[in-house]
What we know:
Blueprint: E1 2-9, E2 11-20, E3 27-31, E4 51-58, E5 61-69, E6 73-79, E7 94-96, H1 101-106, H2 112-119, E8 122-124, E9 138-144, E10 149-155, E11 158-163, E12 168-169, H3 175-182, H4 221-233, H5 241-253, E13 263-265, E14 268-269, E15 271-279, E16 284-289, E17 292-299, E18 311-313
Parallel strand pairs: 7-8
Antiparallel strand pairs: 1-2, 1-12, 2-15, 3-4, 3-18, 4-5, 5-6, 6-9, 9-10, 10-11, 13-14, 15-16, 16-17
Bound molecules: glycochenodeoxycholic acid (CHO).
Amino acid sequence: MCTSILYTAGDHYFGRNLDLEVSFGQEVVVTPRDYPFDFRQMPTLDHHYAIIGMALVKDNYPLYFDGANEEGLGMAGLNFAGLAHFFPVVDGKDNVSPFEFIPYVLGQCKNVAEAKQLLVNLNLVNINFSDQLQLSPLHWLIADRQGAAIVVESTPSGLHVYDNPVGVLTNNPEFPSQMTNLANYQSVSPANPVNTLMPKKELMTYSRGLGSHMLPGGMDSESRFVKECFTLHNAPEGDSELENVTNYFHCLHAVEQQKGLDEVAPATFEYTIYSDGINLATGTFYYTTYEDNQINAVQMHNVNLNSRELAQFPLVKGQSIHAQN
Ligand SMILES: C[C@H](CCC(=O)NCC(=O)O)[C@H]1CC[C@H]2[C@@H]3[C@H](O)C[C@@H]4C[C@H](O)CC[C@]4(C)[C@H]3CC[C@]12C
């Protein structure tokens, strides 16, 4: 499972938790403007916006899990098992495979409005990257540095593009059902509740935080969606980049999966392999890994963006403890 968010605090911060039981060998990858992006059914993009994000590089091709471009448009692919459906190639449509979808959008669009235009003629097609790396059933959150966000879901009924007013995406069910479910939690609050249960009776406020007593806390995607909406939309806005990045990671880590809690096969547990976030205005990409609570950063503009060669930054994994004596 996974969770992706757009946090607004002056600038906009976009990224995700990647929750899985195996690591693919992903790293931070910058694709510069002149790297030739080949597509199976569409013309090569010889020149495009530069992209930074988390990717597995295979045969010199960056298979992005999530990322953002130099204009401040971000995009993340999240599991959508059993619901995602990809189609055969159709003449006259823009036929793009899901593994090409992030470069296709981030290479060409400055913002969500441009992405919506590009999606009008899109057909997400069932072409595997290779026999070893077959398609995964994904849906996507796309968000920009003006704060707009959409969700893209390709199901048996076709391609669906939904405005996302909450800036959160997890996994199943379909996005409109997640939004409907939020209505059940409207009374969840950071404040202690007013007693409407028995207004004429005194009830003891035995604890702080009673306003969030009904907040779901499970590992499942519906619980994470509600919990993250509550956390994100009550998060403070900081006065500095450091404060904002700190708040941002607290929001994501609120729904992280600790090892041992989500059993996906006997004795095999899914956990939050990494959490990442990019400041969409500055192009600084931040991340933490399960093994390392330290926030690491890669600044895309410190890489030569007028190049044809991918720049790869292996993930820092060792825990660093600040010994004080
Ligand atoms: C499985 C995860 C999504 C995380 C998640 O929700 N998993 C748990 C679950 O089963 O619910 C997805 C997100 C991005 C995906 C990868 C990217 O799409 C890039 C690449 C695309 C290829 O078609 C398949 C391999 C490969 C490398 C994908 C493997 C599966 C990934 C890593």
